[in-house]
Amino acid sequence: LVGAGALYMALLAVFVSLRLRRAATIRLILLPLGRLGGGAREKVRGILESFADGLAILQSGKELLQVTVASLFVWTLIVASVVPTFIAMGLDLEWYYPILVIILASLGMLIPTPAGVGTVHAALAFALPVLTTLSTSDAQALAIVFHLTQFVPIMIAGTIAAVLEGISATDIERMEVLPVDTAAGAEGDRRD
Fold first, then answer.
1. In angstroms, rounded to a whole number, what is the distance separating the alpha carbons of residues 168 and 76?
2. How far is Cα 125 from Cα 147, in angstroms, rounded to an integer?
3. pLDDT confidence tier of residue 38, bands split at 50, 70 and 90
4. Of 29, 48, 109, 124, whose CB has the highest number of CB atoms within 10 Å?
5. What is the pTM of this model?
6. Burial 98-108 (b: 16+ CB within 10 A, else e)
7. Structural contact between residues 27 and 49, judged by C-beta atoms closer than 8 angstroms
């Protein structure tokens, strides 16, 4: 938890630095990448430039405060969405358990699997018994129930939205898959 907090603070410092001293921050980040081929280095530069462009919308302290408050509100709702699972399962619930569940589930999602199946469960089932008073079997059950409560509503909402928009499974199969490099630039071209 301390490591995650430190990583968050380091990333926050990089973001602020990108906003305030764009060129110098990008040069500093690219410095250890000097031995990479020019293509990889330029790709990282492009990502950093794009991210810095996105940060440029924050023109004032008031806008930054609004974005920060909105972000904290959303993250509070995400963390709060874990509490009913603990209560429904009759598990011990300390104030920091839901935060821990979200952090561990997010780490599990870093490993690409369809819908995070397996990796989210492994992260929760492995770490929760070590970091909390939950038993291994409780942590495993929590992992499954938590993941279902987060995943199933989104699948239902997506299915309803697809039906309302007249999108079928066949339409989705026929969609052109664009390479990552061109997806952002061609997005506007695909909308009819």
1. 35
2. 12
3. low
4. 124
5. 0.64
6. bbbbbbbbeeb
7. no
